[in-house]
Amino acid sequence: MGCQNGAVKVQLRNPRRDVEVSGPINVSTLLNRLDLLRESVLVIRSGTLVPGDAMLDDGDVVEIRPVISGGGVGLCDPYPMARTRPCAPQWVGT
Amino acid sequence: MKCRVCREPAIIDIRRHNANFCAEHFLRLCRDQTQKAIDEFAMIERGERCLVAVSGGKDSLAVWDILTELGYQADGLYLGLGIGDYSDTSGNFARAFAADRGLRLIEVDLPTHYGYDIPTGAKAARRAPCSACGLSKRHLFDQAAIDGGYDVVVTGHNLDDEAAVLLGNVLRWQTEYLGRQLPVLPARDGFPRKVKPLVRLGEREMAAYCVVRGIDYIVEECPMAAGNKHIGYKEALNAIEATSPGSKHSFYFEFLAKASERFRAEAESEQDLLLLCTSCGAPTTNEVCAFCRLVERAGGTLPEAGHAVIHADGSVAVHLGGTRRAASVAPGPATQVPA
Q1: What is the DSSP-derived secondary structure letter of residue A79?
Q2: B191 contacts in A (CB within 8 Å)?
Q3: Over the stretch B64-87, which tens digit does the pLDDT of each residue have?
């Protein structure tokens, strides 16, 4: 998948936006430049995961997909109905 | 980077394992870690019927896929929350996943069957949206599991989820919650057994698993959850993990090994207080359970009786009734549940 203007096209999510950076550039360096933690994202090129040491070249299109999700309340509290404080924080799972 | 197992080019690095994996061996790792969690915590016996809580997100679809790959009998239950386009999209992912694999998906839609949605229900009940959502999910998944005769409810909680919840509970010393933050919650007094087979796998691994397996899932965050504390705790833990790989694993599993038991008594003391909801029969400490109060405040309705509709594509829509436990315990004044 190519980028017409010769840069590495980076697609970001939440919110969706595109940025372009000059290649070649290492994936880890790209994430550092975008101030993203490697633990919090995946880098995907043409539907395939790209490891941290991979080089991205001008014309590459990559998606940086966030992996953090979830609300603060879960399904695994066995006795949630027993609470007497309806608005109390419920840190029992997501 | 090369795969630790076969030395072929790797697609993912997992720093807490200090290892890289190719696609084949990464999938094997995910399955092995899931099976290890199931065995280590005695989550599921072979032949038992599992009901997977499916949201259309990466974790629930991944755990459903892995359980199926491991040979467990697992149906899915999708709960329509009425959160606009987000619910529409997530439901489509869940349906597509089930249809592609010939799996059975049960659907319950809050607006259709209970007359309220999460945004309006939360506002009416003066709860945070995530609180109203979690309350509704827990109640309806419990109910569906018992009504459907399932042995166990499976959720897609991963290591990051559990570590973030633990951090939140520790920051506030929510000791009763700490006492029951376990990978397995046994069946008891009208609650089905609940298990979290993904506790040995991180959130990034679950997203990667879906990419490698070609599982489409909803990537967008729930608009109701944006900016909530839980996500903030995950980000904080990831910042720690970046400089100290393995911290999340140690935080959670060392808690289970060394500290969890210390809070068990406080969590169990609440069990003796359970009554039966006079409206729906669910275990509760009050005359009417929190779910029924939520539905009432939201202006919704509890159906009188449950029934299932099987669609042409094999999916099943369950219209849940409000008499779940009335069949075995007559409704009426609140009754003490034997400990």
Answers
A1: -
A2: 78-79
A3: 999 999 999 999 999 999 999 999
Q: Are B266 and B256 in contact (CB under 8 A)?
A: no
Min Cα separation A28/chain B (Å): 12
Question: B186, B48, B282, B146: which is closest to A78 by C-alpha?
Answer: B186
Number of domains in chain A: 1
Residue-range definition of the domain harbouring residue A63: 1-94
Q: Which candidate from A44, A71, A82 shows the least CB-CB separation from B273?
A: A82
Backbone angles phi, psi at B161, to 5 degrees: -60, -50
pTM of structure: 0.86
Kindly report the CATH number assigned to the domain that includes residue A63.
3.10.20.30
The vertex-B305 CA angle with A80 and A86, nearest 5°, equals 20
* Mean pLDDT, residues A78-89 taken together: 33
Q: Closest chain B residue to A35 measured between Cα atoms?
A: B239
Determine the CATH number of domain B36-267+308-319. Answer: 3.40.50.620
Among B76-85, B143-152, B307-316, name the one with the lowest average pLDDT.
Answer: B307-316
pLDDT, one tens digit per residue, over B204-231 is 999 999 999 999 999 988 888 877 888 8
Provide the pLDDT for residue B323.
Answer: 37
Spatial distance between the Cα atoms of B47 and B101, rounded to a whole number of angstroms: 20
From A4's Cα to the closest Cα of chain B, the distance in A is 26
Cβ contacts of B90 on chain A, cutoff 8 Å: none
